[in-house]
Amino acid sequence: MKNIFTYSTAFVLGLALVVTPEADAQQFSKRKQYNSVGFSLNAVNYFGDVTPVTNFTSLRPGATRLGAGVSITRRFYPRLSGRFGLTYGRITGSDELATNGVSDPNARFRRNRNFTFRNDIIEASAVAVIDLIENRNNYLKRPDFVPYVFGGIAGFYNNPQGLYSDGTYVDLQSLKTEGQATAYSKYQISIPFGGGIRYRINRNFDASLEVGFRKTFTDYIDDVGGKYAPVASISSSPQQLYFGNGITKSQTGEFAHFTDPTSQRGDSGNRTDWYIVTGVTLNYILTPRIKNPKFR
To answer: Which residues pair with 129 in a beta bridge?
Structure first.
């Protein structure tokens, strides 16, 4: 997964250096620049500790939830645009549903851990969009099909919630379910990158299909990241004790030391969590004002 992030980011940054030389700025005048606004419908998923395997291949289609977003894009050069976006989406995970086989040791571990969560994510992003087919003309002569890649930075708000014994969802961050000295922040940073294809519908409308990965710097968008805490440090409330220890199905027999303080609650590689946004966007081009030349 780390290689996916490294290579993809290097690819996007490398393209940005190639496609934005000074000559482009001279040949692509301000009269050809334009803005567009977009509205997207997204499918949101995640990979982390509450998935069949804690890597990129563990995406579980059944956990996909709908999201939505708005964006504004400014076209600067024949290949390069800047885009600011706001998106909302929910991610979910369930140990009961994520197990990938009864005989798999990890499946037995996850089933016994018995954790189910959801998390509503609100994201603000700024990315560079690099078209793989250039357009040195104005928006009226843009190509019909344009593949593109993008990369940038984003900030997001998230609030993981766990399924409690009474069937309700409970906010987990303040519970410090792993006995943390301080609660992790609900505000985090991610690196969005990905690609898509854009199709010209008519004079002012484009439609695009896009897949974007978000590499986060936290292991707690699912509230699971480290080891089990000593019971004495998570007994301030019934809910804290439940999610930090009592939620497990069994602590006897082969699972006799399942929640010992030295036992792993999340993955052992200290991997950060990711989420992925796949969306269809309808973009409306704001018709730029074209100034007629003055004659003297």
So the answer is: 81, 150
**Residues 207 and 264: beta-carbon distance below 8 Å:** no
User: What Å distances lie between residue 205 and 43, 148, 212, 289, CA to CA?
Assistant: 22, 17, 22, 17
Q: How far apart are CA 107 and CA 110, in angstroms?
A: 5
How many angstroms separate the CA atoms of 137 and 118, rounded?
A: 46
Cβ–Cβ < 8 Å for 78, 28: yes
**56-65: pLDDT as tens digits:** 555 677 788 9
pLDDT score of 16: 52
> Contact, 244 vs 177, CB < 8 A?
yes
Can you give the pTM of this predicted structure?
0.85
DSSP E strands: which ranges in 132-186?
145-163, 169-171
| CA dist., res. 41 & res. 120, Å (int) | 16
